[in-house]
Write a structure and sequence with these properties.
Blueprint lengths: L11 H6 L3 H4 L9 H20 L16 H24 L4 E9 L8 E9 L2 E8 L13 H14 L5 E10 L4 E8 H21 L20 H8 L14 H30 L21 H10 L12 H8 L1 H8 L25 H8 L1
Parallel strand pairs: 3-4
Antiparallel strand pairs: 1-2, 2-3, 4-5
Helix pairs in contact: 3-4, 7-8, 10-11
């Protein structure tokens, strides 16, 4: 067996909603990404700092981390402080809570060959707490009914349910770059019922490559997302509107389009990228050709440029004020606030239309202001 299960916990949101996608994705290479590499580095730093805080043996990985930064340090320190608070709480009800870091969790009792790795598992009498660190700043990850977390919890119960008297499972997503700490609590009984009634039968379909294809937000990280026929069919449904001018559409039609348009533009972008990569690999698309895009001139050797321009009697540098992040790093937060606190302003962000589920407060409009005045 490889490093990743076919039915991994991290991809469970997708294969639980679209069971045949699990086998479909097997035929694709795992290309990886800079985001994934950065996340791996952040997890390594978090693991080291947490082990150190708990008094465990740990080797500092900092020198080998490609993506290491001050921001990553701050994120990892925050994560460790959060976990240590949970450990302190656990000690109030249990003299010897167990803390597992980067623990392999086997949930194959419910999902064939299923296993994953839990960032942090805290086991104490009555409560099992799973914490998962997310370094990504793009997609907000919620803990509510999160299947990845529930699979980790099932794996942890297999290890410790017979030793500790656990009746409640608490699951937390710690996502510092989105200022997101989300916790979901479920009874052990409810979790096991979900495992028997929903998880096991769906996992069996997924493992066998059967079941029905379904398109949704889970398509985002699917390897087959560009050339998936089901996703194309779902997105092409919008074509029935023939993209007439909005005044010819009803309010209901505009609202339906708004609900789908982000997915549509993402899908269209995925198709273009898929076609480009295929063309670079030698594929001939009828009616299309590969050309070289625009590029800008650049120096071959900046040090030589500086020397040559300086020797000619000119100043090769532009002088501009440090950005707020760089200035804060130079002065330190306390001194930054003392010196520049009165000189900082945060202008209003650009207005954007989002679903009501978005956590940001709604802005008042001109019509709202008019109603208040009257």
């Amino acid at each position: 067996m490889g490093n990743h299960a076919l039915l991994s916990a991290s991809s469970s949101h997708r294969w639980l909603n679209c069971p045949p996608s699990a086998r479909l994705c097997e035929s694709y290479d795992d290309k990886g990404s800079d985001f994934a590499a950065e996340g791996t580095d952040a997890h390594a730093l978090c693991e080291y700092k947490l082990r150190k805080a708990l008094g465990m043996a740990a080797q500092d990985p900092t020198e080998s981390l490609t993506w290491h930064s001050t921001e990553m340090e701050d994120c990892a320190n925050g994560y460790v402080a959060f976990v240590m608070e949970l450990v302190a709480e656990a000690k109030k009800v249990c003299a010897d809570p167990v803390v597992l870091i980067e623990q392999r969790l086997d949930y194959s009792k419910y999902v064939k060959e299923g296993f994953g790795t839990g960032d942090c598992v805290i086991i104490a009498d009555e409560t099992l707490h799973i914490v998962d660190y997310k370094h990504g700043r793009g997609v907000l990850v919620e803990a509510d009914d999160n299947p990845q977390m529930k699979l980790y919890a099932l794996g942890a119960l297999e290890l410790f349910d017979c030793i500790y008297d656990i009746d409640t499972v608490s699951m937390t997503i710690y996502q510092p770059r989105r200022s997101n700490v989300s916790t979901f609590t479920i009874s052990k009984q409810e979790l096991c019922e979900w495992a028997d009634k929903v998880l096991t039968p769906t996992a069996e379909l997924a493992f066998n490559g059967s079941g029905e294809y379904h398109c949704g937000e889970w398509c985002q990280f699917c390897k087959a997302k560009a050339d998936c026929r089901e996703r194309a069919k779902a997105n092409m449904e919008l074509a029935r509107y023939e993209f007439r001018q909005p005044p010819l559409l009803t309010d209901e039609e505009v609202e339906e389009i708004l609900g789908q348009i982000d997915g549509l533009t993402t899908w269209a972008s995925d198709i273009k990228d898929y076609a480009l990569q295929a063309a670079i690999s030698g594929k001939q698309w009828s009616g299309y050709k590969l050309v070289e895009g625009r590029s800008n001139r650049k120096y071959t050797d900046e040090h030589a440029v500086i020397a040559a321009v300086t020797a000619a009697g000119y100043d090769p540098y532009e002088h501009k004020i440090l950005g707020i992040t760089a200035m804060t790093a130079m002065l330190g937060k306390k001194q930054f606030n003392a010196i520049l606190g009165d000189l900082i302003t945060k202008p209003q962000g650009k207005l954007t239309l989002v679903p009501e589920s978005d956590k940001r407060p709604a802005m008042t409009t001109i019509i709202d202001d008019f109603k208040e005045d009257n």
